[in-house]
Amino acid sequence: MNLAPVTESFGQDDQSWLGSAEGTSRAMSITLDTSAFNAGLHYPDGYFKSGIILGRITTTGLYGPYSSAASDGTETAAGILLCAVGAPSTNTIDVQGAMLWHGRVLLSKLPMAEGLNGGPDAGGAYKTDLPQIRFDA
């Protein structure tokens, strides 16, 4: 039995990109393909930030960061990561998450910049892919 004290630190997820609570109670359970994400870009602080736009990888059915330039299925936006998810210590372990597919989103508050994988593209194709999400500035 180990009775040594254990210290954990907790951060707070920034969900300021949510324009309303609409759709948050109907999020879809998903599995993130950790190997599809870049540690330095998508989870530099040890967790996947909420607000990352996701696409579904055709061959596995798992979800990765949306990229309009991809050709593995993630070029079609499927939804947005609703809550922060702790990243595993190795990228071969896939983690569970919740995906927003209906609601209102404030584009200027999304954690990924325009043009980055997991961020909006300049052409706005993700908006067509997600007709049940209202995107506001």
Concise overview:
The protein is mainly beta.
Helices and strands, with pairings:
Layout: E1 28-32, H1 39-42, E2 47-48, E3 53-56, E4 63-65, E5 77-81, E6 85-86, E7 95-100, E8 103-106, H2 125-129, E9 133-136
Parallel strand pairs: 8-9
Antiparallel strand pairs: 1-7, 2-6, 3-4, 3-5, 5-7
CATH class: Mainly Beta
What is the molecular shape? globular
What is the count of distinct domains? Answer: 1
Number of helical elements? 2
In the CATH hierarchy, the third-tier topology is known as: Virus Head Decoration Protein, Chain: A
The count of DSSP E runs of length 2 or more, i.e. the number of strands, is 9
- Poorly predicted parts: none
The level of helicity is under 10%
Average pLDDT works out at: 92
The termini sit apart by 54 Å
What report would you give on this structure?
Strand 8 (103-106), helix 2 and strand 9 (133-136) form a beta-alpha-beta unit. The termini are far apart. A 5-stranded antiparallel β-sheet has the order 1-7-5-3-4. The protein has helices at 39-42, 125-129; strands at residues 28-32, 47-48, 53-56, 63-65, 77-81, 85-86, 95-100, 103-106, 133-136. The chain is mainly beta and 137 residues long. The model has no long low-confidence stretch (mean pLDDT 92). The protein is built from 2 helices and 9 strands. The longest helix has 5 residues, at 125-129. It has a single domain (24-136), classed as Virus Head Decoration Protein, Chain: A.
